[in-house]
């Protein structure tokens, strides 16, 4: 989407079905961005249309394509949209941690992780909210009902699938998709985790957060989703991210055994 495309949000998403026991709750969807100007306005609009209790925080790492400026223009007219600008590209994990701190300071009840590139469909947000009544952490899973991934090359799909098998073997996490970046945390989970101690910067961040929550005694559940490869921009996956994942899971297990997690 170009920067001069008007931002619109459906004011009547049509998802209300009667009295809601969580009507007083509020959720924040955190969207880390780096050069996502083509997709960000559409994603923000789709999120807000799903539930009136949801707000959006875009954590932008000084995107040279103007993503941050576009989000600022949206936030100027939409009170449920917020921007957190960082000075440079500092990694996915640190972006989410910054977003978590921002959410906790403002008393949000549900804190979501979600990609800004169109690969995570906001239509699953109500399912994740519903599941949060039973689980402290809800994971949007690509692998609970077969393999639900669209447009990935076979090499990438196999890497992801077996990375999850590997993570489960090493850590003991009872998740089919521990590397998913589409998640909902209850605020008490993030309050209990020492965010200063979270070290992963790439996609291992997802495994680490799940592992820390599990070791704190919180319950983890999965909601099936269909993942579609990004519709715009370029993938952030790299060899360094893969290498980090290989050894980081062993480090997490060792620290847990030593009581230093």
Describe this structure in words.
- The chain has one domain (27-230, 237-257): Spore Coat Polysaccharide Biosynthesis Protein SpsA, Chain A (Alpha-Beta Complex), CATH 3.90.550.
- Helix content is 37%, strand content 16%.
- It has helices at residues 40-50, 67-75, 92-105, 125-131, 154-171, 187-192, 204-215, 239-257, and strands at residues 27-33, 54-60, 81-85, 110-113, 137-141, 149-150, 183-186, 220-224, 227-228.
- The strands form two sheets. The protein has a seven-stranded mixed β-sheet, sandwiched between helices.
Ends distance? 42 Å
Please tell me the overall pLDDT: 87
What can be said about the biggest beta sheet? Answer: 7 strands, mixed
Note the total helix count. Answer: 8
Shape: globular
- Helical fraction: 25-40%
* Class based on secondary structure composition and strand pairing: alpha/beta
CATH homologous superfamily descriptor? Spore Coat Polysaccharide Biosynthesis Protein SpsA, Chain A
Task: Supply the CATH architecture.
Answer: Alpha-Beta Complex
CATH topology: Spore Coat Polysaccharide Biosynthesis Protein SpsA, Chain A
What is the tally of beta strands? 9
Spans of at least 5 consecutive residues with low confidence: 1-19
Radius of gyration over C-alpha positions, nearest whole angstrom = 18 Å
Strand numbers in spatial order across the main sheet: 3-2-1-4-7-5-8
What is the domain total for the residues? 1
Tell me, what is the CATH class? Alpha Beta
């Amino acid at each position: 989407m170009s920067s001069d495309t008007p931002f619109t949000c459906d004011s009547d998403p049509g998802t209300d079905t009667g009295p809601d026991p969580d009507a007083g709750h509020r959720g924040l969807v955190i969207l880390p961005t780096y050069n996502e100007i083509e997709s960000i306005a559409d994603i923000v609009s789709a999120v807000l249309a799903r539930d009136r209790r949801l707000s959006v925080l875009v954590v932008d790492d000084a995107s040279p394509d103007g993503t941050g400026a576009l989000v600022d223009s949206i936030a100027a007219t939409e009170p449920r949209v917020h921007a957190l600008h960082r000075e440079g590209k500092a990694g996915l994990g640190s972006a989410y941690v910054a977003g978590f701190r921002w959410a906790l300071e403002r008393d949000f009840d549900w804190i979501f992780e979600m990609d800004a590139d169109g690969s995570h469909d906001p239509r699953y947000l109500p399912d994740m909210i519903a599941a949060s009544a039973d689980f402290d952490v809800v994971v949007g899973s690509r692998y609970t009902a077969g393999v639900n991934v669209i447009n990935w090359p076979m090499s990438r799909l196999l890497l992801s699938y077996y990375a999850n098998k590997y993570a489960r073997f090493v850590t003991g996490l009872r998740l089919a998709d521990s590397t998913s970046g589409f998640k909902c945390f209850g605020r008490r989970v993030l309050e209990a985790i020492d965010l200063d101690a979270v070290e992963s910067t790439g996609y291992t961040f997802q495994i680490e957060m799940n592992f820390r929550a599990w070791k704190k005694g919180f319950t983890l559940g999965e909601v099936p989703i269909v993942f579609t490869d990004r519709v715009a921009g370029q993938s952030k996956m790299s060899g360094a991210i893969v290498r980090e994942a290989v050894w980081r899971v062993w480090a997490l297990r060792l620290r847990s055994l030593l009581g230093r997690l």
